[in-house]
Amino acid sequence: MRIQCVKSRSPSNAQQALKTAIQDLQHVKSIDSHLCANAECLSLYLQCKLMILQAQNDKIWNIPAALCTHQGSGLKSLVENILSTSYRVEHTFTGLSSQQLFLLRQLRLIAHALQILVSQRYSRANDRNLNSMLQVWESFLTRIKTFTYFINTENISTDAFCAEVVSFPSFFESNITNPSGVVDYVQSIMLSHEVPSLELTGSLRQASAVLNEPRGGSDNPLCFAAGLTLGINVEAVLENVPDATKVRVQVGVLETLLRWIFSRNLPQNFETRYKESCVG
Predict the structure, then answer these.
(1) Quick check: 43 and 54 in contact, CB under 8 A?
(2) Contact (Cβ atoms closer than 8 angstroms) between residue 160 and residue 194
(3) pLDDT attached to residue 213
(4) To 5 degrees, how large is the angle CA 170–CA 173–CA 177?
(5) Which of 38, 127, 145, 174 has the highest local Cβ count within 10 Å?
(6) By CB neighbour count within 10 A (0-12 exposed, 13-18 middle, 19+ buried), where does 248 fall?
(7) DSSP-derived secondary structure for 155-167
(8) How far is it, in rounded angstroms, from Cα 6 to Cα 24?
(9) Which residues pair with 205 in a beta bridge?
């Protein structure tokens, strides 16, 4: 009930209510293992909702763009956390319905829009020309196209906000020579929208991976020579992973280079462990 009432609260009170709800869900995880996956999923979603609320109420929106001299690293970092957390929710938990995935992807569109708005606010005036605007919004238009396809394929019922988002490509085409007008339009939509609550009606499974070998911090690091293949035995326990062939292992080289390694041939005795999660 506390979350449903967030809409009628002031921004500061709404943020405090969300923080309290997140703490309550963390407590649920510790007392009931059957609700652990559902509680973690809701907790992460509420964290996204909280971060979006914080971004929407950031003081930079009240400052004229011409006076924004710093780089807004704090807000940029906040938006990046929203994106990474939303991807984590979508790809870590199995059992999410089409409607729940729709809410996650809509939330992520808001984050991408905020990311563009922040970059445009701190860009130099002479960078705000037609070519730069096309480059900035191109990926966002592609995301909307993919989002629209998902809505039509899954027969998702939409609201007024979603309709505005889906119709943005038409608005953009009509106002392509007015970069500031496009920014103002998107800002008016994204800063006033409240992220809806996520309702879980069934049980979820949470995917996880525990790497047993090789262990980090070894006193005997593996040595290799450039151009030669180095074989590394990997022992890991996977839980609730539908397709283990898509699992990647991140390898750090010389503390600066990161690579993702995957196995094309899994051993015949490979097993993926599933944990049942029930909602009583």
Answers:
(1) no
(2) no
(3) 77
(4) 145
(5) 38
(6) exposed
(7) T----HHHHHHHT
(8) 16
(9) 94
The pLDDT of residue 112? 95
**Alpha-carbon span 240 to 257, nearest angstrom:** 30
**The tokens of 191 are what?**
């800063």
Query: What are the percentages of helix, strand and coil residues in the chain, rounded to 5?
Result: 55, 10, 35
The string of pLDDT tens digits covering residues 79-126 is 999 999 999 999 899 899 999 999 999 999 999 999 999 888 776 554
- Give me the residue spans of the domains in the chain: 6-190, 207-262
Tokens found for residue 99: 């409607």
Token readout for 139 is 């990926």
CA 167 vs CA 121, 164, 172: distances in Å: 23, 5, 9
SS3 of 199, please? coil
Tokens of 196: 């809806």
Q: What is the DSSP string of 98-119?
A: HHHHHHHHHHHHHHHHHHHHHH
43 within 8 A of 23, measured Cβ to Cβ: no
pLDDT at 124: 55
Whole-number Å distance between alpha carbons of 108 and 119: 17
* Ranges of the chain with pLDDT below 50: 1-2, 126, 268-269, 274-280
Number of H helices, E strands in the chain: 8, 6
CB atoms under 10 Å from CB of 262, counted, come to 10
Q: State in Å, rounded, how far the first CA of the chain is from the last one.
A: 19
What pLDDT sits at residue 152?
94
